[in-house]
Structure formats: C-alpha cells, structure tokens
Amino acid sequence: FARSIGEVTDIVEKEMYTFLDRNDESITVRPEGTAGVVRACVEHALLRNQQQQRVWYMGPMCRYERPQKGRFRQFTQLGVEAFNLPGPDIDVELLAMCARLWKMLRVDHLITLQINSIGDLQSRNNYKQDLLVYLNKHVNHLDEDSKRRLHSNPLRILDSKNPDMQTLIANAPILLDYIDDEAKQHFAQLQVELTELGIDFTINPRLVRGLDYYNRTVFEWVTDKLGSQSAVCAGGRYDTLVETLGGPSVPAVGFAMGLERILLLLEAANLEFTNTVDGFLMCIGEEAERARLLAAERIRNLVPNFSLLTSMGSGNFSNLFKKADKSGAKVALIIGADEVANDTVSIKFLRSDRPQQTIALEEIHTILGDI
User: Fold this and answer.
1) How many other CB atoms sit within 10 Å of the CB of residue 295?
2) 303 with 365: CB under 8 angstroms?
3) Global pTM?
4) Degrees (nearest 5) of the Cα angle 120, 124, 126?
5) Sign of CA dihedral 358, 364, 368, 370
6) 263-312: per-residue pLDDT in tens?
7) For the residues of 113-162, what is the DSSP string, one character each?
8) For 131-178, what is each residue's pLDDT tens digit?
9) Are 85 and 52 a contacting pair, CB within 8 Å?
C-alpha cells in the first residue's frame, strides 16, 4: 500500500492500520481496494500480452480516522477497475454505469458529477513548481494541515474544505493549463461522449486525488446531503500503477464507492423500499407439512428467479392467507393432501384478477416464470 498509494499521503501517514502480530510480523489492514486488485492481476498474469480485464470487488476497508457521519473506521467499499483500455471511452462507460445506478436507486437528483484532468506526471511536476511558488507567498494563510502538505503533497491543499482558505485556493494556478496536448484531447473527448449520453457534469479545476498513482481523468460524484462527507463515489485513471507494482505497463481506470454513504443518501431521500416476495407457500395438513421443504426446493429449482417465502409450522387456512397477503406476495402457492397425492400445486393470484388454478408441480415454471 505504501508503494502504490504513496508514502506521503494521508492514508499511509495517518490512517493506515499497521501493527505487529504475535510473531512480530508486520500486518496491515487494507485501506483501499485498487492496490490489491492490481497485485492480484500481476500475480496471476491477467495482464500479459495486453489482455483487457474488467473486474469488480466489494468488501470491508479500514482507516484510522475521526468517526463522523458518513466516515467510519471500518467501511464497505464497492469498486470497479478496467485494465488495458487507454481511451476516454472506458472512462465514460464507468461514469455511465454510475449514472445508471443512481437512477435505479432513485437518488440521481441528489448527486452531481465533477470531473477534471490532472495530466501526466511531468505536467504535474511542472505545475507543482508554480503552485509551490504561489503557496509559499501566502504561507501565513495556510492552515496546519496545508503547511504539513506543502512540500510532500501540495496538490492535496487544493482539496481543502477549510472555508478560510477557499479564496486562496480559488486564486491558485490552474492545473488544466499545464496538461499536455494528448491529455487535453483525452479530456475533451470525455466531455463530448458524456454530453452525447446526456450525463450532466461540471469541470472542477481544483479536483485532485489523494493517491499518487492517478493521472489524466479524475472524477467525483458528490452530494450536499451528507454534511462534510460530500463524495459518494470517486475515481479516475491510474496508468502507471501496474508497472509500479511490478507488472507490465498497463493503462487502467476505476472507481470506488462507500456503501454506507449510499445508504445514508437513501435515508436522506426519504425513499420507501418494500421487502416483498414473489410467492408465499402454504401447506395445509400434516401430510403437506411433511412435504413442505421438498416442494419449496423443487419450486426454487424450477423457477430460479422466483423469490419464495415458505410458511413454517402449522396454521389454519384463514390465518395462512392473512400471512400470505401481509408478505406482499403476488401469488399464494397452496399444497394440501390432494396436491401431495397428485404432485400438483394450487396457485391463487393475490394482486391480480385471475382465477385460481391447479397445475402439475413440474409445470409450475410455465406460470411463475411470468410473475
């Protein structure tokens, strides 16, 4: 992580959990997912001969931070990474994937996309020199965090949320003025394709990444509904990271999103989600109750995408129907002594005006497949 993220980043300097175990071996709990994905791809030769890979991950990450709303010491991250795809088209596809997710979750009206290009390493080094000249002229106006970053990671100063420094940051040199022609063309095409897809964005010239391996495209999906933790999803290109970790020279791009922040955003949107099922299986009588689990598993095998809730224990017909209706199921599947004897199931439609019917259990997919 120190090699990939950078020794002078906040993550490695202040937030990464590193400790000695009982055998005095150094253990680090992962602070982010990209470095591990790259290591796995290099270890298993997934990127040789210019192989293209599109992968994803989800799991817990840990950082030593001051807990607050939307920021936890252990959090869950979902990430997507694409390798050996150098053009802006894959950048756009990842952004389109995010935009589609926000629409599916019905929070697209609460999230906006900010983009920027930070060019290549040489462009940033040229920019850093002029940025340092500017910041040193105003060093007395920098907060303690920015003074610490001044000679180690000055670009991160541009990302400061300190309101007292916003005027200073606004008047700083602009990184976009320093990137080379190839990076400018990449960024221009990115904007054209986003516009064609109808994905709204704003260019934030102060948007940078806190990790050293990023280059060219950087982006954040942000909201004003989570207080100071405005970023819901962030990412960009990292065309040098694979080579840094011992692999071939491979262009790459990806993003990661914090699932806890998305859950908070869903709460802020006051959205109502129902936890319903497709079918409710009710068995009447001892013989049917003994066959209940076998019948349920057969139905699940015959109709894999049909979500089935099985009533357990005993109950009379009236009470079981009340449970079926309360579950929100679209159909009640009824098995009694006759159905057991004939290997059939009766289907009562709870949300539509269709007559009840009895069908061979093996043929149930012909009806439930359309539910």
Assistant:
1) 22
2) yes
3) 0.76
4) 120
5) negative
6) 989 988 887 766 778 999 999 998 989 999 999 999 999 998 899 999 98
7) EEEEE---HHHHHHHHHHHHHHHHHTGGGS-HHHHHHTTT-GGGGGG---
8) 899 988 988 888 888 888 887 778 888 877 788 888 888 889 998 999
9) yes
